Structures are given as structure tokens and as C-alpha cells.
Amino acid sequence: MINCAFIMGRLIADPELRTTPSGISVTSFCVAVDRSYVKSGEERQTDFINVVAWRQTADFVTRYFHKGSMIAVQGSIQTRSYEDKNGNKRTAVEIVAEKVSFCGSKSGSNGSFDTQTSNYTQNSQNGELSTDSEDFEDDSGLPF
């Protein structure tokens, strides 16, 4: 069986690092992803995909990505059930990030973090890592 998800889009808010009672880093964030097709006479639609990252990947995301940053996420789809504050049963669908990457940088700097090996890989012509969201192209037309 295969459970693989790959998405690329923009963060809709700054990710916030949290720590579990046992000391494990975790962050949840939402990625706005444009649909690849547009119905005739309609505007392009955007999906908002929830992502959760753990341990070193969570540290990496909260350190280098901010609202509006372009991000590529590779992981697996997970569903979980919970009760909301009104006692209603809900189901959450999210991607559990295994690898996250920079993308869309004007400076040509690309990098990724792979959870499997806990290695950060940087590919850059000048060796500098740009983390400022202003360095990412903003051609999405989204309100952030």
C-alpha cells in the first residue's frame, strides 16, 4: 500500500513551535495550494491543506518559514477523529511532513530537510540561505 502526498503552496500564517509533555517538537500549519485547473468562466480555486511536522522538521519549518513563504511538503496523509468543544465528533485530515523544501526563491537558493536522515540540504549558487519571506515571489494573487 502506498500513502504519499506532495504539495507546494504558500503558508497562510507563521508556524508556531510547540512541545509535547515528553519534550518532542511539533508544529501544525496550513498551506494554500492552487488547483491546477480552472473551469471556463470561473476563477482559480485554492485548497487549504493542513500539515503537521514533528521533531527536527518542526524546528526547521518554524525557523525558516513564515506567512506567505512558498513551501514544498512531502509526507503521508493521516486521518484522526476527535470531539470538538461542543461534543461533536469530527474528523481531521492532514499531511504528516517527512520532508519540506524551499521553493520559488528569487535568489535561486533551494534547500530541503529530510526527516529520514535528519539532514538539511542546501543547494545555492552563493552558499547563502535566504529565509526572509520577501525573497519569495508573490504571484499567487492570494491575500497574504
Mean pLDDT: 80
End-to-end gap? 37 Å
Number of strands: 8
Which percent band covers the strand fraction?
over 45%
Order of helices and strands: EEEEHEEEE
Structural class: mainly beta
Spatial extent as radius of gyration: 16 Å
Sequence stretches where pLDDT stays below 50 over 5 or more residues: 106-110, 120-144
Note the main sheet.
5 strands, mixed, barrel
The main sheet orders its strands as 1-3-4-6-5
Helix content: under 10%
Number of helices: 1
Please describe the topology of this protein.
Blueprint: E1 5-11, E2 18-19, E3 25-34, E4 46-54, H1 55-64, E5 70-83, E6 89-102, E7 110-114, E8 119-123
Parallel strand pairs: 4-6
Antiparallel strand pairs: 1-3, 1-5, 2-3, 3-4, 5-6, 6-7, 7-8
Task: Summarize the structure in words.
Mean pLDDT is 80; it is low at 106-110 and 120-144. The chain has a 5-stranded mixed beta barrel with strand order 1-3-4-6-5. With 144 residues, it is mainly beta. The protein has one helix spanning 55-64, and strands at residues 5-11, 18-19, 25-34, 46-54, 70-83, 89-102, 110-114, 119-123. It has 1 helix and 8 strands; from the N terminus they run ββββαββββ.
